[in-house]
Fold this sequence. Notes:
0% strand; 83 residues; mainly alpha; single chain
Amino acid sequence: MANDLPEDLIRLQREADEEGRKIAGLDDEGRAAQRTKWFDAAAIAQASVTAYAEEQGLSRYQVEKQLRQAVRHPQPDKGTPQG
Length: 83
């Protein structure tokens, strides 16, 4: 399955990942509030992955794996010079 995921799935996963990164360095109260934001963003991303996988007749696990790969380890554009 090539990376042909919808941009909205990629955006939602990026937003969830960003909310998770914001936890670092917060005090207990701030961490608890940020964790709630992270969990909420992750739940929205997961629900979107599940809906997309069902609509496309794909494995949710495979869609999630591809999505995380695309967001966390993006491949450089083939038209972009390296170096």
